## 1
Amino acid sequence: MKKLDQSHRFLFEDHPIRGQYVTLDKSWQEIAQQAGLEGRGLTLLGEAVAAVTLLADTLKIEGSVTLQIRGTGPLGLLVVEANSKQRVRGIARQSSQIEEKMDLQEIFGSDHLVITIKTKGAEPYQGIAPLLGMNFSDALEYYFATSEQLATQFWLACDGQNASGMLIQKLPGRSKDEDAWNRIIHLASTVTDEELKTDPLADLLHNLFREEAVRLFVSRTIGFFCSCTRKRTAAMLLTLGKAEADDIVEKEGAISVVCEFCNANYNFDAIDVAQVFSEGGAVWPSETTH
């Protein structure tokens, strides 16, 4: 039986080739529900969530990986983050219809994507890559080939209930079997979206790589997270300036801030706002709604 919301690492024992697999169920459904997208917009967000989760686990860092695209197209914003604690979140904003024949640059109205890797104790690393192809598999494979110089292939599948992905990567070192990489990628490319989303991983790997020795490591459970808090939201109000904050309270009665990731609603009345600016962001506890 397939386990839900899991990340697995696997290794081809006879070759310098590794793999990573992720299946997201409840965690993806929480993200999808908040995003409110349909059709290709939802599919692209799901692909990105699966891909970034794969990357976070493949890199083996204590930190996080974020993929971000901002542009002027129908899907003008996409931000996805996964961290080493197996937590993931993501948002996307769609302003108009996405035509089926559109490539990624047309969909996002941007010619590049940004990948940011934050590792504990080190400066953040930021990679910028051309936004090429029709889906995130195309774009990320090009990113790895040009920026990371690591042969890496992605298979990503998504619907409203599940987002799944598989990554296979060639490691440094010479293989005794020079055809191993091409053979394994050819076999992996026979996987269907339905198999990727529904098959237990052990069965999936056996069916794809019957003649290969594949070691499957212990799985790790993935969950949705959001880092918003009332204290952090209060600190954001400082960027408005006191005059503008007071003006909003006078006109609206309060300042309402809704988190785009989890839909938490933080309200600040006149007393809260006065305290924010007098104490540099500190506020009394107050009601928060989802």
## 2
Amino acid sequence: MKKLTSFVISSLLLFGAVACGNNTAKTSDSAPDNPSVAPSETPSAQATQAAEKDAESQTRRNQLNADIRAHEQRNNGLNSGSAKNRSEAAMASEVRSKLEANIPKGHLTVKAAKDGTVTVGGTVTNQDQLAKIPTLAKEIKGVTNVVVNAKATKAKG
């Protein structure tokens, strides 16, 4: 029985470690891996249309906004409403959700640091979307500085 219990616990720990291995949040599969590097190519028209269809649905936007509210409520309960002790992963996830809900055609990555700096990389389709990134990111509790390495490009078609 002891062997079985230790095997089950070890398996759960291994599964959890593998599942939590990558802290860089992405808005799409075609987003660049590193938000600090400028994008080398624009997304294909098919990829843009698929992302747009999903992200522009009201259901998806409602889900993203509900996720953001849930994160904020959890933070308020754990940290008495302050932004202290927020994990980088939590900030990155919330910023990614915020950007995905408000910039539906973007292919963006988000990386957060302990000091509240968020770095956003990837591509958006126009300058207006690019200009929205800092404002939207700073709406998330704990974000103090936003570095935008994203570019505005036209999608290939």
## 3
Amino acid sequence: MAALTPGAVRKQIAAGTPDAIYLLTGEDDVEKSALAAEFAELVDEGLRAFNVDRIHAGDLTTGDKLADGVASLIAATRTLPMMSPRRVVTVLQAENLLLPKRESEAATRALDALESLFEDPDPQTTLVLVAGSVDKRSRMFKLLQKRATIVECGAIEDRADAERWVRTRVAAGGAEIDAPAARLLVDRAGLDVRRLRSEVERLLLYALGQKRMTVDDARAVAGPASLVDDWAMTNAIEARQPAEALRQLALMLDAGAPPEKILGQLGWLVRAKFPQLKPAGVRPAIDAVFRTDQDLKRSAGEPRILLERLVVELCAAR
């Protein structure tokens, strides 16, 4: 089956249209745990005690224990939902199911039974396997590639996903974060998971003991802004998005980009793109770039203001 991002899976959960089997993998344990917990939303809150099961596979270290664990899993997935259209069964540390540590006749029989379950899942049950490191060469993983939806946890898709990521990490630290504070951290760190993790860790340390993190807390610890895309400013001008173009310009300047380099990008945009995008705007755009170049060389104004004026003019010419 398909490989989906965590964001795409959340859309399935919200729409109430989940697949039969999911394998959540990746190094981001917090993301895996948060996503696995969200599957419970497929069942009305008052009915979750009857229709949501969690199985821990961490202690399935022998063939006999594995056989018992697989039997319990099959029984849970084959049980009919009670007053609900769907059941959810989550298996934590599922790598112990998929690749037993010890081989034995009991383990082999258990794996055969598990394969039969994967080949013929119950249509009224969603099975969620939460695994750490999985051998992608193994027979069981190759079967899941055919029968399950594989979800790699750890990648961030867009700004909204990054802000949700920040909120999840802060919640895992026992606190909450205001929406403007989460946005500020994303503005500064971009979509880089490593830098976002560092920003959140610093915030939790700085506000140790607080139950809610504010934008002032985030501003106190956030590092310098990070660019998501070196060409986001010129792309925004092409798309006639002056507000986004100015935001990206501010990110570039805050990150230490020389004004001359930014002016060079804008000059390239005018020379390479404007003749096709807006032929009538080429001459005014060239004049604006030339004037800004002269003003920068003569120190005729603050570079940030001169470049902001140029960006606005180019958006208008575009």
